[in-house]
Design goal:
Radius of gyration: 16 Å
Strand content: 5-15%
Number of helices: 7
Shape: globular
Strand order of the largest sheet: 2-3-1-4-5
Order of helices and strands: EHEHHEHHEHEH
Number of strands: 5
Helix content: 40-55%
Structural class: alpha/beta
Length: 191
């Protein structure tokens, strides 16, 4: 029997994923639903904060992401992800460092991540970068927000799974309305 449900936010940097994830977690908790939040794993990466954008970074973020998702599923009815496997696939593709001293088999990693993504009950794609404020953490990133957004959407399209594009306006209301309309079979219903 399934004991937790995963709601994943995917998409470009500065597109509102974190705001939506935190807002949804707070909303569900106020409804009395135990909701865990998995923050963006790259923020915990020592490789990223050191500006070392290499294969080791990709593998460290993958490990941090899977570990955090598993931990939250053990303690919560609903797990909300601020980034997910689809984002990781896109970053693996965009950061294919052929001359990296630590080579990896990208196809095997992608297969693993696609298999892992089956645990997500619903995926929301935030594809419109706001660019309203500069995230100092993102200053390390050498890829453009639009390039990342396009690659993540391509990964989602190729995956064949259904996902919902979050509009720029009334994003939180859209998320709540979508969850309600889907009648997501949560252990405790969203009201």
């Amino acid at each position: 029997m399934k004991t937790s449900y995963s709601i994943a936010f995917s998409g470009a940097p500065l597109a509102g994923k974190t705001t939506l994830a935190f807002s949804l977690a707070g909303y569900l908790r106020r409804q009395g639903i135990p909701a865990g939040l998995v923050p963006e794993a790259v923020r915990s990466s020592l490789y990223f904060t050191a500006g070392n954008l290499c294969n080791a970074l990709n593998m460290e973020v993958l490990a941090l992401q899977i570990l955090a998702e598993t931990r939250e599923r053990n303690y919560n009815e609903v797990v909300i992800l601020d980034r997910c496997a689809y984002d990781l696939i896109a970053y693996f593709r965009l950061r294919n460092a052929a001359d990296d001293p630590w080579p990896i088999d990208r196809s095997a990693v992608e297969q693993f991540l696609h298999a892992h993504s089956r645990i997500y009950d619903i995926v929301f794609l935030c594809k419109f970068p706001y660019q309203l404020a500069h995230d100092k953490f993102r200053a390390i990133e050498n890829l453009s927000s639009q390039l990342i957004a396009d690659e993540i959407e391509e990964v989602l399209k190729r995956s064949g799974r259904k996902y919902f594009i979050v509009p720029r306006e009334n994003a939180f209301e859209f998320v709540i309305q979508t969850l309600t309309e889907l009648g997501l079979p949560l252990p405790t219903q969203i009201k």
